[in-house]
Amino acid sequence: MKLLVAVSHHGLGHLAQTAPVLNALLDLQPPSSLTLWSGLARAALQARLRMPFSHREAPADIGLAMLDAVNVDIASSHAAYQAFHRHWEKRVDEEAAWLEAQGFDGVLSDVAYLPLAAAARAGIPAVAMCSLNWRDIAAAYLSGYADIEPALEQMHLAYQGARAFLRLTPAMPMDWLHNRTDIPPVAAKGMLRREQLARQLGIEPSHWVLVGFGGIAYRNIGRLPELPGVTWIVPDDWGAGRADLITLGATGMPFIDLLASCDALLTKVGYGGFVEAAAHGIPVLYIDRPDWPETPYLTTWLAHHGHCAAITEDILFSPAIGERLERLWAMPARTPIHAEGAPIAARCLGELLA
Question: The whole model's pTM is what?
């Protein structure tokens, strides 16, 4: 099977869902060739995938325009969707012709809808997979614009036209999607490298707190407090210059191994961080996103399967964050969840695209 996989570039969460499924597919029924259509950098894709691939480095969808990792730029998002859909039928025709010219046998999308619409027009089997869909996300932020309705309907038809929508647990309800199939949680598994990390950095064992916001930069970077016995592992653009502050790049380790080796994850609400933390039994301190449509479903699920607590942005760089962390660490350890969704999704994908 010559497979095209479209991966949304709205952060790294869509890749965190897609990569374990593709890696499982490699073990079960490897495609003859793999092409990734994504605005993500090739290095980000290579960091998660175990198989060779071609890269069409271009956005397959809009997602949302972001002010930073947690704040949506609504006006810019509206303008982007209007531009994306202005010549929709012509665009679908062009992409359908490209799919045919490339000779693809199947399409998987997490969760861009243009490739799904193009595949339907070209008569190529296609499957959607995600914990969300951009129709519901766009509607939540842009429903105040009357001119967004045609775009929402085009998105609706594209998703509904896929052979199936593999809805990854935990997920938004998406009751209007009659082709949805529920899949257990999907998460990569990291290696515990805590002792190696301590030796490499020359730091005595302490509480390691990994800071990650899912691939989108955080705008209001401040000064993390110095807390007794705590070492922060932070994004590269947060700087260093302190003994208790280590950048991700300085570790030389994959993010998923750092997660497996830390004592807590500091993040925003998002599928990748939440499910990967639960799969490693790591407590989570997260910046709440009450406007994000996935929030009630993700936070309820994580509270049931792991230890977590919400904070507001004003707590992030305050000494009060230390109190929140201590509360998490005082709780009895939780058993990591068994994230068995990847091989199940891979089997479904093989059957649906056969």
Answer: 0.96
